[in-house]
Write a structure and sequence with these properties.
Elements (H helix, E strand, L loop, with lengths): L7 H8 L3 H8 L7 H13 L6 H8 L4 E6 L5 H16 L3 E6 L4 H13 L4 E4 L9 H8 L4 E4 L10 E4 L1 H14 L5 E5 L5 H16 L9 E3 L7 H11 L8 E4 L2 H13 L9 E5 L13 E4 L2 H17 L9 E4 L2 E3 L7 H8 L1
Parallel strand pairs: 1-2, 1-3, 3-4, 4-5, 5-11, 6-7, 6-8, 8-9, 9-10
Antiparallel strand pairs: 10-12
Helix pairs in contact: 1-2, 2-3, 5-12, 8-9, 10-11
Keywords: DNA-binding, Transcription, Transcription regulation
Protein name: LacI family transcriptional regulator
InterPro entries: HTH_LacI, Lambda_DNA-bd_dom_sf, Peripla_BP/Lac1_sug-bd_dom, Peripla_BP_I
């Protein structure tokens, strides 16, 4: 049996009133007596009546809902960012509708079409690893749907953007490995088309050059789905770990890449850090509890989500179109742990 919500008509029928009288009573209209208002309100509370949000959105031309598109909700970075978005949305009386692309371009198109058909007031988007054509997003934006990009941004879209300083995070992670004595540092990267992948590759390359190590593109392997498909990570690591001269450290450029790299090493009995050092982007809360504790570049995900939601609501509630946009770039923080233990320290421990 199909669920049917209680309507104004149901209240009117039960109380022997007209629907217009019930509607005015619920809106606290001066045209309705206090006695009738109280009668309607008490009965509405008794039967758990809730206004129809679709009807309200048609009337007010606002749904008080925000759409979110991320690659994967289970990803620790995105789950923390969603928490940040929801904290602000709730404070301002907005609901959120969360969708995930699973790194699929087609699914991302379906998601944004669904959200726009539900008349969301705006969207916060982190594009999929497969997305190269942004027409499905730019067309809605040009039709005045407020959109904020975060993490994986669309550079050509003139809107608010919220990112972490990927260049600096990658630069500092690679420099950390070099200072600890590693020379043949490979990079495990996400999709080559993503803004964050480009920035992290640039940071990795610059750190090598600044420390007198020649950048060799052969020591960079791409996983087009950012670690979502383990077999993709496995193939990339099979390639990187068979290079000559031998790779002695890996910098992983995304959350899933980092954890799947560790999974690969355990499956192939590769001792971290004795045989291979590892550092990468990860927002998992238990990286310090792994064996060995994992060195990571941690992003302020909650803060990124919070700022994104504040900027989107600013766009939605502005009485005039906003034309002056800015990019918010937040710092990443490195946590150095045992997975990148210095080479000389390892030798001392072996004696």
């Amino acid at each position: 049996m199909k669920f049917e919500a209680v309507t104004i008509k149901d209240i009117a029928k039960a109380l022997g009133l007209s629907t217009s009288t019930v509607s005015r009573a619920l809106r606290d209209s001066y045209e309705i007596s206090e006695e009738t208002k109280q009668l309607v309100l008490n009965y509405a509370k008794e039967i758990n009546y809730r206004p129809n949000p679709i009807a309200l959105s048609l009337k007010e031309k606002r749904s008080r809902s925000i759409g979110i598109i991320v690659s994967e909700i289970a990803n620790s970075f995105f789950s923390q960012a969603i928490n940040g978005i929801e904290s602000v949305a709730h404070l301002h009386g907005y609901n959120v509708i969360i969708t995930q692309s699973k790194e699929s371009y087609e699914r991302e198109i379906a998601n944004i079409q669904y959200l726009s058909s539900r008349s969301v007031d705006g969207c916060i988007i982190s594009v999929s690893a497969e997305t190269k054509d942004y027409t499905h997003i730019t067309e809605l934006y040009e039709r005045n749907l407020p959109i904020v990009c975060f993490d994986r941004v669309i550079e050509a879209l003139n809107t608010f953007k919220v990112t972490v300083n990927s260049f600096e995070g990658a630069y500092n992670a690679t420099t950390h490995l070099i200072k600890n004595g590693f020379k043949k540092i490979a990079m495990l990267s996400g999709s080559s088309v993503l803004s964050i992948s480009k920035d992290r590759l640039s940071g990795y390359r610059q750190a090598l050059i600044d420390n007198g190590i020649e950048f060799n593109e052969n020591y960079v392997a791409y996983c087009q789905h950012g670690g979502l498909i383990y077999e993709e990570v496995e193939a990339a690591l099979n390639y990187l770990l068979n290079l000559k001269p031998k790779t002695d450290a890996i910098f992983a450029g995304a959350d899933k890449l980092t954890t799947n790299c560790m999974r690969y090493c355990k499956a192939h009995h590769i001792d971290i850090p004795k045989q291979l050092a590892l550092i990468g982007f990860s927002n998992l809360d238990f990286t310090d509890l792994l064996c060995p504790p994992l060195s990571v570049v941690r992003q302020p995900a909650f803060e990124m989500g919070r700022i994104s939601a504040e900027l989107l609501i600013k766009m939605i509630e502005s009485k005039r179109p906003i034309t002056d946009f800015e990019s918010k770039i937040l710092p990443a923080e490195i946590y150095a742990r045992a997975s990148t233990e210095p080479i000389n320290t390892k030798k001392k421990n072996e004696k």
